[in-house]
Amino acid sequence: MSGTDIGFWGVPLAMFAGAIRVSTPFLFVSLGECLTEKSGRINLGLEGTLVFGAMSGYAVSYLSGSPWLGVLAAGISGMFFGAIHGYICKLPKVNDIAIGIAMMLFGTGLAFFFGKPFIQPQAPHLPSINLGGWSDYPQIQSALEINPLFLVGIVLAVAMWWAFKNTRWGLIIRMTGDSAPAALAMGYSVDLVRFLATTVGGFFAGVGGAFLSLYYPGAWSEGLSSGQGLMAVALVIFSRWNPLLCFAAALLFGAAGAIGPALQSVGITQGYYFFNAAPYLLTLFIMIASVSPKRSLKGAPGELSITK
Amino acid sequence: MADIAQQDATPAVYGGLAELLDRLRRSSEYVLIPLFALVAAGLLFSIFLLALGQSPATFFSLLWRGGFGTGFSWENTLVRAAPLILTALCVAVPARLGLTIVGGEGALVLGGFAAAVASIPLVNAGAPSFVVLPVMGLCAIAVGGLWIGLVGVLRHYRGINETIASLLMSYIAIAIMNFFVEGALRDPANPNKPSTQAIGEANMIGDVPGLGVHWGLPVGIVVAILLWVLMNRTTFGFAARVTGGNVRAARAQGLPVGRLIVISCAIAGACAGLAGFFEVAAIQGKANASLAAGYGFTGILVAFLARQNPLAIVPVAVFLGGIAAAGGLIQRRMGMPDATVQVLQGLMFVVLLVSETLYGRMPFFRARGDKR
Amino acid sequence: MSAFSLNRRTLLKSAAIGSLGLTTGLLTRRPAFAADLTIGIIYVGSRDDYGWNQAHAVAAKALAAVPGVKVVEEENVPETVAVAKTMESMVELDGAGLIFATSFGYYSPFMVDAAKKYPDVQFRHAAPLWTDKDPKNAGSYFGYLDQAHYIDGIAAGLSTKSNKLGFVAAKPISSVLSNINSFAIGARKVNPNATVQVIFTGDWSMPVREAEATNALIDAGCDVITCHVDSPKTVIQNAEAKGVKSCGHNASQADLAPKGFITGAEYKWETIYKQYADTLAKGGELPNFLSGGYDLDFVQNTPYGAGATPEAIKAADAAKIEMKAKVPVYVGPLKDNTGKEVIPAGTVHAPYDPWIDQINFLVEGVTGSIT
């Protein structure tokens, strides 16, 4: 094992590895939320969707023996939650933020309720793809053990970014989000577009949950999500509704989360509470540094209740 | 037209009474629709229980017993409601300006922490409780107010979304507290549960005489009433509501939008900080990780259910406290998991919020002659 | 106060009559006989958490088997006023005569207050906290898991190749620190080159961070990982996935790591709960303070897994016999990891010395800081 001790280089490497390992759920939830918000609606309930997705994905993977079936089940259950949210929010006088919070409670409640029998059993995990075979360092090899969902997430981010700009559907969604009257004038059903966007957004969030239970950390438990779904929603605003920036923000958040354990592993142990809070501190500082009151939120959908 | 003719024909003597009844009928909308929603949610949940082979009758009778059925249950309910009133106010006040603050948890934690820290030199110097407690309370209010006030500053002067900022800052607040509680301010008397030095039995706030509930409950109710008056009966409240309705219009009117935002946020944070003070001075007796018990997050729900009305927050908090109080009895008697109550809560809230779509749609509640 | 109490009793009675048909036996007040006893058990997390709470829940089934005893349980009760009210509710509404509070933070002020409020009800708490200044109807029961972690350390010290052992810990509190120290002392006793690296996650249950900590330790060269968190499943699973060895904690995690599991430190709560159950069945009184380790069969080690080397098994088996004979682990001279002498030469701390409950340092050979 000699020659593999890389000392302080372990910290940036751990951050890199952490970014890949931890970012996927943030990425999927924020892409789902990005789609929903682009259509002019906010879904704060994705935390509940994520938790339910994690539970249902794990349960189905355990019962069927196929982790990919679990991912699909997580997505479909997420779609179901998204559809409920989408349907309710189109009713007049209903506050989408409040419904989101209630759905978050409902989703986590259902997940905990039905998840009890699945805490103990071991479900088959998603496989990983090893891209680090070229390196002699076990640290690099393990950092480059990548889950296929991470790659799917990257493709999805790029595809969404491209589609918002270049496709008819992208245009319709953006128009619905920026000005409902304009979309109506063009003959599109605002309610239908938002319903579909929320439903598909829920699917993504459910898949993000499946990553947590089926890959990393890789087991279903009630403490599995420590607010990842909620933070991911916040990251969408942070990344100005740009799917590529969502990807960057998810990576940044994942990397910052790895700082705490990595620093302790090289012997810097004082103040680990602050290192553990690094993702939140970093996000806040970046916002303070980059946002200015004069430049209003560029890219913000005009119809969004939270930014009005 | 027929209605108006009828009204005109009513003898003047009965006019007052008829009008009163009419107003009652119209305002009953705000009671009957939520009641209807709760019944609907109860029915849906009964189906859920039946599908699981459980008895809804047992469930709801236990819910009633555990939350409201006995004197003890009321104590249990009210003590759980007390912090929720204050943390819900932390959401409701800025909501009038159109701000969505979700970081009450952070202000509560730091407020409670500040109160505990402030008590240390005073307790060590042997100060009497009538000195210790006010200082603790003021520190909690000040720190809570500063914390959420800072969110308002960031919002107004840096254009940072207050929802994200307050969420991030609540995680940071918990980290700050843990850092000190497990480090510099750790009391060696608690080797296994890192805490600050205890404020001492003599400085603990007792229960309201004759009621097994600490003073946080009446104080919370009084604060709710005061804030209702502030938001509905003063120029400040009016200006805040105008700003919440349309910022540009408010600016055009020359309203000090920035100051309104910062002050409202500070008031909100002060409420949550006060909740933290009561957690320390009435419950825990010291600051430790148990301060972050999620009251701040439940408060968000209370505020939204109360439609951001400070007065409505009180009954909603009691209702939520009651369900939480009954949760234990249901677990014990029916052997169902703790999440059962969470499912019921989630369902109730979704249905209650959906029922808001009914307002103004039912002909029964309309004013006579209103042919909308 | 008295007026209200009176009022409350009346209320309780009338309510009981009113709902007699629905919930019978609702108001069985404090029982006169042990054979007619309701026991309440309170957990801080989920009963199926593969860790601390589950260990209690499984063992406490021994109590339910006693004739005439009824057990009521409540899970996910936070260490706030909620637990105070849960205890009161168990007494007031279920007529509980004995309550087990299984989480550390339940004790003060909540359980102490409840014991003062209900002098006829017995309260027992799972940590060595009771002193004779506390109410006589309260008490403590506890297993000294550091003895089993010492055995883990011995097995780990002889199963490592890199001589680096990793420890994922929740918080730097005494009960965690004593486990880390015992693990390190055991490992370094059989393998003086071994070092233990600690990462504190800051939380009792935070799976993502626990997994990150495990990976960070492995990247730093550790080839045996153990932990002290509420639910060790994540740590053991991730260690196994990375091909390193592991030692368990709280309950058996042998199934999670078929290739790399060495052994694990387990509570044997059933010894205690069975002892309580027998006492109750005979109508006897529960002791105020009950604690022990290997000698009283309150703790044990998980059967060795594929990760344990033959030398490790041999040395660990020998150490188990020592532990049963109450051979002390903390023997001077002992330095902490800043070089300060914490036990002078010639001083010995016996296995149940209260000194162990107050440990506030990491021993020499441990990388990590408690602040």
From TrEMBL, chain A:
GO cellular component terms, semicolon-separated: plasma membrane
Top-level division of the source organism's lineage: Bacteria
Record membrane topology: Multi-pass membrane protein
GO MF term (any one): transmembrane transporter activity
Keyword terms of this UniProt record: Cell membrane, Membrane, Transmembrane, Transmembrane helix
Annotated localization: Cell membrane
Principal place of residence: membrane
InterPro entries xrefs: ABC_transp_permease
Entry's transmembrane regions: 6-32, 68-88, 97-115, 146-164, 195-217, 229-259, 271-291
A Pfam family of this chain: BPD_transp_2
Protein known as: Nucleoside ABC transporter membrane protein
UniProtKB/TrEMBL annotation, chain B:
Transmembrane segments: 30-52, 81-99, 106-124, 130-151, 163-181, 213-231, 260-283, 289-306, 313-331, 343-362
Family matches, as CDD domains: TM_PBP1_transp_TpRbsC_like
Cell location: Cell membrane
InterPro entries in alphabetical order: ABC_transp_permease
Membrane topology: Multi-pass membrane protein
A Pfam family reported for this protein in Swiss-Prot or TrEMBL: BPD_transp_2
PANTHER family reported in the protein's UniProt record: ABC TRANSPORTER, PERMEASE PROTEIN, GUANOSINE ABC TRANSPORTER PERMEASE PROTEIN NUPP
A GO term, aspect molecular function: transmembrane transporter activity
Name recorded for this polypeptide: Simple sugar transport system permease protein
Record key words, sorted: Cell membrane, Membrane, Sugar transport, Transmembrane, Transmembrane helix, Transport
From TrEMBL, chain C:
Organism listed in the record: Kaistia soli DSM 19436
Domain ABC transporter substrate-binding protein PnrA-like: 38-287
Protein name: Nucleoside-binding protein
Gene Ontology CC terms, in alphabetical order: plasma membrane
Pfam families: Bmp
CDD domains in alphabetical order: PBP1_BMP-like
Entry keywords, A to Z: Signal
Keyword Repressor: no
Gene3D superfamilies in the cross-refs: 3.40.50.2300
InterPro entries linked to this entry: ABC-Purine-Binding, PnrA-like, TAT_signal
